[in-house]
Amino acid sequence: MAMVSMRQLLDEAAKGGYGVGAFNVNNMEQIQAIMEAATETQSPVIVQASRGARSYSQDRFLYHLMLAATEIYPDIPIALHQDHGNSPATCKSAIEMGFTSVMMDGSLMEDGKTPSSFEHNVKVTREVVEMAHARGVTVEGEIGCLGGIEDGHGAGGDGLEHLTDPEQAVEFVKQTGVDALAIAIGTSHGAYKFSSKPTGETLKMERLLEIHRRLPNVHLVMHGSSSVPQDLQDVINHYGGKLKPTWGVPVEEIQLGIKNGVRKINVDTDNRLAMTGAIRKVLVEKPEEFDLRAYMKPAREAMKKVVALRMQQFGQAGHAKDYKPIPLSEIAAMYKKEAVTA
Ligand code: 13P
Fold first, then answer.
1. Counting runs of H as helices and runs of E as strands, what totals does the chain give?
2. What does the pLDDT look like over 101-127, one tens digit per residue?
3. Cα(246)–Cα(227) distance, rounded to whole angstroms?
């Protein structure tokens, strides 16, 4: 199956009332882990690459691994998404390479750190929407800023400084025409999100519900949604790691989000933790080992387990064969028609 439009994948998720995990990748083993989990659970998937991942992997390598995934797993709908594009140029290069979806994160300036103005955000996002939709490619925008830093990108802090203003969110969607909207409700990238188990209050779930009430037809995106499970932390620390005590986003809060318009859930850290723990275990238990397959295989298996569990928890499991992919050229025609009738 060819790669599919993320918009189609999210429209279907909205119809079915479920969420779709968007898992970050840097290398072959992570892509294989996601595809194996998707096959086992029969899930449609979103695979995403940050700018850091594109540079680490020399993105053409990553892109061709994704093409291999479409050949090896023809029954699984896959959207390939640029995570946190920092400029229209970054999004353009992803589109030209064949990504079926891009995030223009205009909530920050091009340096990926400095919070921007509403006007800047609208301007760059609108530019990307025009460029992407002409090719049937999906666009995710962001209003409000997440906390934390990922691959050098992020506003830092605990995610509470720049929460999404619901009224601005409505205006932003109206002025840009984005397909999906990332909102800031107190989550942040990375392992160190909370110093105790967060409640719905810590996470500002009320704000999410308010945004959904005002924008019932927009696909909402939750970034920074790793749950940072204690058992994965324990494996790392047991085998010589030094993670400080930390809490992530409880799966129940994500599920509440899914009942209220969240369709895309970004997860990276949990998979990093799973793979690192598995690698540490082999290297500590078998210090004589030097065949990288001896630790990459259990690492891949550990990530697959986490991803398969999230696929069940987000509700995408069992939905891989619900629909036929619409070619991007038809999606582009659909956007054109929408623009004419708007
Ligand atoms: P985590 O660090 O919580 O996995 O978030 C990843 C993310 O939001 C990628 O954009």
1. 13, 8
2. 999 999 999 999 999 999 999 999 999
3. 10
> Model confidence over 50-80: pLDDT tens digits?
999 999 999 999 999 999 999 999 999 999 9
- With the most atoms of ligand 1 within 8 angstroms of its CB, the residue from 267, 271, 272, 314 to mutate is 267
Q: Catalytic site residue 83?
A: yes
User: Which atom in ligand 1 lies closest to the alpha carbon of residue 269?
Assistant: 4
With a CB cutoff of 8 Å and minimum separation 6, the contacts of 125 are 104, 106, 139, 141, 172, 176, 178
The rounded Å distance from CA 273 to ligand 1 centre is: 12
How far is the CA of 78 from the CAs of 6, 67, 320, 334, in angstroms?
8, 10, 9, 20
From 11, 83, 105, 268, the catalytic residue: 83
Mean per-residue pLDDT, 27-43: 98
Specify the 3-state DSSP secondary structure of 115.
strand
From CA 221, how far away is CA 88, in angstroms rounded? 20
The CA distance from 29 to 41, in Å, is 18
Tokens found for residue 243 = 């993670």
- Whether 48 is in the pocket of ligand 1, judged by its Cβ within 6 Å, is no
Would you state the structure tokens that stand for residue 65, as one six-digit string? 């691994």
Our CA angle for 183, 330, 100, nearest 5°, is 45
pTM > 0.90: yes or no: yes
Q: Which residues contact 238 (CB under 8 A, 6 or more apart)?
A: none
Backbone region of residue 292 per phi and psi (left: phi > 0; alpha: psi in -120 to 50; beta: other values): alpha
Cβ of 8 closer than 6 Å to ligand 1, yes or no, is no
CB of residue 204 inside a 6 A radius of ligand 1: no
Our answer on whether the CB atom of 189 is closer than 6 Å to any ligand 1 atom is yes
> Which string of DSSP letters, residue by residue, matches 280-294?
HHHHHH-TT---HHH
CA distance 55 to 230: 31
